[in-house]
Amino acid sequence: MERKKPRIAFFDFACCEGCQLTVLQMEETLLDLLEHVEVVAWREAMSGGSDEYDIAVCEGSISTREDEERIQRIRETAGTVVALGTCANIGCHNALKNRWSMEEVLELVYGEEAGLFETLPARPVAGVIPVDYRILGCPASLPEIETVFKRIITGQPYPLPNDPVCVECKRNDHLCVLEKGVMCLGPVTRCGCDAICTAYGDACQGCRGLVDQANLEAAVRVITASHSHSIMDAVARRFRAEPERIRTWFSLYNGPDLPVEQEMTEHGS
Predict the structure, then answer these.
(1) Among residues 166, 176, 179, which one has the least CA distance to residue 214?
(2) Any alpha helices (H) in the chain, and if so which ranges?
(3) What is the pLDDT of residues 159-213, one digit of tens each?
(4) How many other CB atoms are found less than 10 A from the CB of residue 255?
(5) pLDDT tens-digit map of 6-60
């Protein structure tokens, strides 16, 4: 008897849905994937949908009570849940609103109509429910998407890589953009994207989040210290590297909940 294909459904919460569009860019690989799974819900690619699925791929962050209830139902239904992209894993830009009270946020966005809406501090999907697989990036990395989907189909785990992007830069023989006087977060950002930004001479913006035990104290010190390396002196002059600006760089994707000083205290030097 022919084995039944696992049913896969895609869901979006607070996000731009760019990570789901990246999945569509798998092209021929996507066709190969469809030989092994049955897509039953995917707003970006099909009409209709089904409430019966085995694998749930969830993009975005949770910012309302309705979101909370919906993601809990998805977790109860799906045998496997995938957090797709940085919003679903660490909060990403959505978490920037957590700097203010929710009353201030609603008033800023909706003005006099603020009372008609409700919102909660933004949290990643992975911060609300247990997830089985995590795919990082803003948008998610296409090679990592392909790798994770293959692991799911074959029943293998996918541990997140825990080296900095600098490792992939060295592996690919990329010129360090710090030498061009460009601020780069590669030394403290989790790899897995094959250093795609620095491949084109752009800086790493930290969209994959921090590596475990990221030494933020050292990262700040080498940028701002008067005795720093000449390369970092050039970066500091160009970007006016005061502590507040450094805090902004680190919090763009990682969320502003913890100031840099507190993170330094937790991680140590």
Answers:
(1) 166
(2) 18-24, 28-33, 65-77, 86-90, 102-110, 142-154, 165-171, 196-199, 216-224, 230-239, 243-254, 260-267
(3) 999 999 999 999 999 999 888 888 889 999 999 999 999 999 999 999 999 999 8
(4) 25
(5) 999 999 999 999 999 999 998 888 888 889 999 999 998 888 889 999 999 999 9
SS3 string of 53-70?
A: CCEEEEECEECCHHHHHH
DSSP 48: -
What is the DSSP-derived secondary structure letter of residue 205? -
Measured CA to CA, the distance from residue 57 to residue 79 in angstroms comes to: 11
3-state SS, residue 38? strand
Ordered by start, the domain boundaries in the chain are 7-154, 165-267
Picking from 220, 219, 182, the residue whose alpha carbon sits closest to that of residue 204 is: 182
d(CA 90, CA 202): 23
Coil, strand or helix at 190: strand
DSSP 211-226: PTT--HHHHHHHHH-T
Matching residue, tokens 């966005």 = 109
Q: What is the pLDDT of residues 170-184, one digit of tens each?
A: 999 999 988 888 888
Helix (H) or strand (E) holding 178, with range, is none
Question: Which residues 6+ apart lie within 8 Å of 192 measured at CB?
Answer: 136, 137, 141, 144, 160, 161, 208
Helix 216-224 and helix 243-254: axis angle, to 10°? 140
Cα atoms in the Cβ-side hemisphere of radius 13 Å centred on 61: 24
Contacts of 256 (CB under 8 A, 6+ apart): 95, 96, 98, 99
What does DSSP assign to residue 34? T
CATH match of 7-154 with 3.50.50.60: no
